[in-house]
Amino acid sequence: MALDELLDEHEQGEKVRTWLKENALGLVGGLVLGLALIGGGKWWTQRQHEARVALGEAYDQVVRAIEAGDLEQASREAGDLAGTAYAPLLALALAKGQLEAGDRDAAIDTLRAASSDDPGLAAIIRHRLARLLVDAGQAEEALSLLAGADDPGALETRGDAHFALGRGEQARTEYEQALRRLDVAAPQRMLLELKLGQVGGTPDPAGTES
After folding, report:
1. From the Swiss-Prot or TrEMBL record, what is one GO molecular function term (predicted)?
2. What would the DSSP string read from start to end of 89-111?
3. What is the DSSP secondary structure assignment for residue 184, as one 8-state letter?
4. CA-wise closest residue to 149 among 117, 132, 173, 174
5. Burial class (CB in 10 A: 0-12, 13-18, 19+), 168
6. Which DSSP string corresponds to 168-183?
């Protein structure tokens, strides 16, 4: 028979009281720690929510400044969001506003400073910057930016860059490749075909690549 079974109720009570005295600090500490972890988790979740709301409000404020034409204020406030997921989106919006205001150089500077961890968004930034660089007479840099890109828009812009540099044959090759990758119903086909004709090319009647 086990020893505990031989102890009477008084002895059992004494054992419990003794154990509680010896372990009370640990019990209280564990309880406090558990409550602190629960409270801390709720506090952290609330802080994260508040931070997301604040970032969203700051983003909306910059967008409103761009729409109002206050580009200097928009540029300052966009700088406060550098490093956030909103930064590349604001860079694109700000550059568009600057270009519409006639300040192409400012738009170029804005896009030069922009970056994104998202490959698709990064490609959009490079493409828009390349188009502005071609327009600004910096076609070689535009070609470097779009090296390796094979989407129709990038190919067309590379063709524009080669054309600006007087390289008609290279421009024709880029335009032809761009047309092959475009859907036959794409609205930009007509302009691209005109560009191809300008450098001595003829649209392929076979249409797009399969």
Report:
1. protein-containing complex binding
2. HHHHHHHHHHHHTT-HHHHHHHH
3. T
4. 174
5. middle
6. HHHHHHHHHHHHHHS-
> How many Å apart are CA 71 and CA 77, to the nearest integer?
10
Which amino acid does the sequence have at 82? A
Q: How many CB atoms lie within 10 A of CB 210?
A: 5
| pLDDT (tens place) for every residue of the chain, 210 residues total | 444 554 455 555 555 566 556 655 565 556 656 656 676 666 546 666 565 666 778 888 988 999 998 899 998 988 888 888 889 999 999 999 999 999 999 999 999 999 999 999 999 999 999 999 999 999 999 999 999 999 999 999 999 999 999 999 999 999 999 999 998 889 999 999 999 999 999 887 655 554
- Sign (positive/negative) of CA torsion 185, 186, 187, 192? negative
Q: Would you give the end-to-end CA distance of the chain in angstroms? A: 85
Q: Which residues of 60-99 are buried (b: 16+ CB within 10 A; e: fewer)?
A: ebbbebbeeeebeebbebbeebeeeebbbbbbbbbbebbb
